[in-house]
């Protein structure tokens, strides 16, 4: 059998993390009651005019900057006409003639090494609504909440050749866009969706084969399975003549694990694109461009290097911290207060993560005042409170956002550093444990831990550990 | 008569039925929107009410404003005792209403005022908000005022013009001033040869009379030839149909407006609702608009029309460097017992240039004065000086 290679290009739709829709002031949150986030404008009522949400343009620019695109300083919106009940004005406002970003690319890493995947363009557009089938009345109802939610579509060049590369590319986009808070990229909530364009050709050939497009894929598993299925189908068609391949749009069925033809190129709609007269061209001047560029966060790889070099963190700690923008923000904020990078990293990766696990939250959802965490780290490091008390304060900060210093005072968590009281406790413990003291003096030094524990217990956990050790030494050694 | 009106006192105005007024049906003269009730006001309605005007009602228009003189309205055309078409807004202001606020799309308001002997002012594109106006050709249509005299037009225009953040094409000027009178003495007026030639002898006589009146007030009037008039008509038709076709696509029977009884699937719902809901002229606009936007025709039709518009813009600047205004007929004849699609197309010859270029236009004494953008005061002053010439 001839050897084939797969040629894949992706069109990735990403919902932008704006509070309001692209052309009106309706909210965008996921999971709102049906048709709660709608107004006459996003319902396609006549006479309502679009007013551009500036934030959308800024997030569009950011996406382009993150993926090394050129930003078009003169960018326009166009109308794309087609009839579908989830599209209330019967046209989608998108960018056809002058998209905001062009000619970029991102580097991915797979088992075969590093590779740059080209990006043809990124354009801004509005999302459509959702159709809901009501089995009870056997009717189809429409929910316009998602109508006019801002999207960007990232169109890659046909540079991908395997499932592994596709997954690496999507992961890369996800990491970049989440880090810069352009989008939350949640495939399960539909804020990241993907059209897969695929063809195969004999290895080494430069011509492209017949291309099929699978629309609206919304999980990595489905994308992987669909690609494998399509490659096999194409090879069967070419090798065994099972069917004649045509350029068409196909639908992936997640239950049947099969793709089905939807419409061929000949049946494709003529979208009658033309410039939207109601949206004046957007001109991005240097000032605006620079302010958006300046607002971009330091990217994960750069941050990771800096954490290792500047803060002397281990490679693995730096990796975990830089996997999430929220962790980085809390870490950097806390370090600026505690001045103790290693301790702070330990507190985040240990205590904070364990609280997140208990609450079944992801790292991105870490929400704590970084300066408060910084103070806890410092209090413990300075011996003002003991580690266990620190954990208690942290949990109170998490749940009630208390002030760490006041909380310690209120709960009497201040570490016991009065020498007299510690001496009394040590004496009391040594007197009550004569046998153990003898063991220690006979060289069984590990029993010292038991004595230490007893003293701490006597001090109700508030003793300064270093001081207890000192006083123990004074009496024992 | 199909319009609703409760004239109380001087100060009452009405809206043409293409402009939304909260909780009052807005049909745009179409069966498609016969029962459509808007949820809120247009910006112009808001401004009028804030300024203390009473909005008395809605005035019948031709379907979406595409036609000659309102003859395509689903609610019927208005005719005078001789069987000639009359424009409802013109009739109303003659019978005492302060004014009718109207959308000027394809010349109907201009023609209505010219044939009815009333005043219509279409200000520069972008000076009056289109928020709450039933959209057709968004790049060109403009809200104007229909009145019995120039003074009332100036008064109402001052109320409705000015920046509105809800309309992205609204110009930044907060408020416009229309009342300063700069007279017409020493002003240069041109009559385009091409327009004059196409007019009937009665219409030519009207132009001659107006030219004489202007001269008697100290203006210079001369004929000029401007080749762009011819091409502006085809370019305008392409643009108007394309943009309107797109805007009319929202009327699909799904959400509001007319829905057919005869459907078993979504395609039939669309097709039958639109077939039943739109009249012949609207359907023609939709078909022609779809064609000029289609993949195969876009660059040879629509895109070319946009280029023509840009080219005309620069030659207009040359024309207006020499002249203060254009004096021209609004229609070829002085009366129309009926109108078909061909008549509508032919008559847009006189209005396409100003429509497409968003130029201010004042209809007075049965003729039109067209100026460069923001020259409303020149036009209004000239109109005042010849007011009453019949």
Q: What's a concise summary of this model?
A:
The complex is a heterodimer of chains A (477) and B (390). By secondary structure, chain A is of the alpha+beta class.
Please explain how this structure is put together.
The complex is a heterodimer of chains A (477) and B (390). With 477 residues, chain A is α+β, with helices and mostly antiparallel strands. Chain A contains 15 helices and 16 strands. Chain A has helices spanning 54-66, 163-179, 220-240, 286-295, 300-311, 315-321, 325-338, 341-358, 370-381, 387-400, 404-411, 419-432, 434-441, 448-458, 465-476; strands at 4-15, 70-71, 74-75, 78-81, 91-94, 101-110, 113-126, 130-134, 139-143, 150-156, 192-202, 212-217, 248-253, 258-264, 274-275, 282-283. In chain A, strands 2-6-7-10-1-11-12-13-14 form a nine-stranded mixed β-sheet. A three-stranded antiparallel β-sheet of chain A has the order 5-4-15, with no helix packed on it. Chain A has a two-stranded antiparallel ribbon with strand order 3-16. In chain A, helix 2 packs antiparallel against helix 3 (220-240), helix 7 (325-338) packs across helix 9 and helix 12 crosses helix 14 (448-458). Chain A is elongated, with a radius of gyration of 30 Å. Chain B has 390 residues and is α/β, with parallel strands linked by helices. In chain B, 38% of the residues lie in helices and 13% in strands. Chain B contains 13 helices and ten strands. Chain B has helices spanning 43-50, 88-94, 108-116, 150-160, 193-198, 201-216, 228-248, 266-277, 280-293, 302-322, 341-347, 352-357, 376-386, and strands at residues 12-16, 54-59, 99-104, 119-122, 142-147, 188-192, 220-224, 325-329, 361-364, 367-370. A ten-stranded mixed β-sheet of chain B has the order 2-1-3-5-4-9-10-8-6-7, sandwiched between helices. Chain B starts with 11 loop residues before the first strand and ends with a helix. Chains A and B meet through strand 15 of A and helix 7 of B.
């Amino acid at each position: 059998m001839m050897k084939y290679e797969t040629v894949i290009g992706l069109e990735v739709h990403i919902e932008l993390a704006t509070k309001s829709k692209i052309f009106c002031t309706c909210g965008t949150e996921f999971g709102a009651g049906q048709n709660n986030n709608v107004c006459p404008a996003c319902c396609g009522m006549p006479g309502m005019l679009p007013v551009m949400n500036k934030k959308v343009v800024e997030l569009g620019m950011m996406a382009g900057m993150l993926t090394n695109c050129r930003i078009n300083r003169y960018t326009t919106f166009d109308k794309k006409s087609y009839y579908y009940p989830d599209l209330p004005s019967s046209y989608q406002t998108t960018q056809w003639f002058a998209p905001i970003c062009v000619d970029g690319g991102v580097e991915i890493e797979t088992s075969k090494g590093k590779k740059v995947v080209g990006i043809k363009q990124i354009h801004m557009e509005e999302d459509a609504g959702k159709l809901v089938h009501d089995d009870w009345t056997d009717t189809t109802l429409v929910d316009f909440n998602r109508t006019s939610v801002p999207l960007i579509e990232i169109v890659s060049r046909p540079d991908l050749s395997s499932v592994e590369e596709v997954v690496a590319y999507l992961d890369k986009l996800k990491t970049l866009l989440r880090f810069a808070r352009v989008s939350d990229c949640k495939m399960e909530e539909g804020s990241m969706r993907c059209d897969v364009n695929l063809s195969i050709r004999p290895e080494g050939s430069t011509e492209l084969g017949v291309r099929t497009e699978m629309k609206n894929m919304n999980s990595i598993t489905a994308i992987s399975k669909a690609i494998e299925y399509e490659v096999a189908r194409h090879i069967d068609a070419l090798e065994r003549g099972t069917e004649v391949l045509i350029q068409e749009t196909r639908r992936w069925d997640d239950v049947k694990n099969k793709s089905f033809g939807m419409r061929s190129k000949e049946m494709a709609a003529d979208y009658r694109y033309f410039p939207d007269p109601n949206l004046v061209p957007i001109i991005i001047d240097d000032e605006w461009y620079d302010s958006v560029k300046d607002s971009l966060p330091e990217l994960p790889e750069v941050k990771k290097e800096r954490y290792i070099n500047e803060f002397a963190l281990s490679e693995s700690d730096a990796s975990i911290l830089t996997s999430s923008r929220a962790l980085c923000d809390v870490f950097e904020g806390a370090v600026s207060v505690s001045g103790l990078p290693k301790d702070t990293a330990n507190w985040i990766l240990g205590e904070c993560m364990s609280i997140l696990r208990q609450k079944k939250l992801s790292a991105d959802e870490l929400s704590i005042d970084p300066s408060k965490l910084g103070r806890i780290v410092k209090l413990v490091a300075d011996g003002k409170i003991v580690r266990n008390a620190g954990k208690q304060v942290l949990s109170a900060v998490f749940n009630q956002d208390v002030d760490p210093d006041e909380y310690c005072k209120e709960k009497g968590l201040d570490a016991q550093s009065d020498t007299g009281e510690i001496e009394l406790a040590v004496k009391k413990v040594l007197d009550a444990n004569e046998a153990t003291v003898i063991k220690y003096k006979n060289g069984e030094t590990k029993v010292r831990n038991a004595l230490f524990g007893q003293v701490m217990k006597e001090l109700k956990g508030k003793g300064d550990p270093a001081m207890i050790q000192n006083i123990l030494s004074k009496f024992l050694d | 008569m199909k319009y609703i009106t409760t004239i109380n006192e001087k100060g009452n105005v009405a809206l043409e039925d293409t402009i939304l007024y909260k909780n009052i049906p807005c049909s745009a003269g179409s069966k498609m929107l016969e029962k459509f009730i808007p949820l809120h006001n247009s910006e112009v309605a808001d401004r009028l009410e804030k300024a203390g005007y009473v909005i008395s009602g809605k005035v019948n228009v031709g379907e979406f404003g595409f036609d000659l003189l309102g003859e395509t309205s689903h609610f019927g055309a208005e005719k005078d005792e001789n069987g000639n078409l009359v424009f409802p807004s013109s009739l109303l202001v003659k019978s005492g209403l302060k004014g009718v606020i109207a959308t000027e799309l394809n010349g109907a308001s201009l023609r209505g005022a010219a044939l009815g002997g009333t005043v219509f002012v279409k200000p520069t594109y972008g000076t009056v908000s289109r928020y709450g106006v039933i959209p057709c050709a968004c790049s060109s249509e403009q809200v104007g005022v229909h009145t019995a005299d120039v003074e009332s037009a100036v008064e109402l225009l001052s109320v409705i013009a000015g920046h509105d953040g809800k309309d992205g094409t609204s110009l930044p000027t907060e408020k416009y001033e229309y009342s300063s009178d700069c007279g017409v003495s020493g002003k240069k007026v041109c009559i385009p040869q091409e327009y004059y030639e196409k007019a009937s002898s009665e219409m030519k006589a009207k132009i001659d009379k107006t030219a004489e009146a202007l001269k008697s007030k100290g203006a210079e009037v001369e004929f000029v030839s401007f080749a762009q008039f011819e091409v502006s008509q085809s370019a305008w038709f392409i643009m108007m149909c394309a943009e309107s076709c797109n805007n009319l696509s929202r009327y699909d029977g799904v959400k509001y407006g007319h829905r057919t009884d005869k459907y078993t699937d979504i395609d039939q719902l669309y097709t039958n609702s639109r077939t039943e809901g739109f009249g012949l002229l609207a359907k023609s606009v939709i078909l022609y608009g779809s064609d000029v936007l289609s993949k195969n025709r876009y660059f040879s039709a629509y895109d070319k029309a946009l280029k023509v518009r840009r080219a005309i813009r620069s030659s207009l600047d040359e024309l207006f460097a020499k002249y203060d205004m254009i004096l021209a007929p609004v229609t070829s004849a002085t009366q129309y017992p009926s109108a078909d699609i061909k008549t509508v197309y032919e008559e847009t010859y006189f209005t396409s240039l100003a429509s497409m270029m968003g130029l201010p236009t004042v209809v007075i004494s049965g003729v039109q004065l067209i100026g460069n953008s923001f020259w409303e005061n020149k036009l209004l002053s000239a109109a005042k000086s010849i007011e009453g010439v019949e």
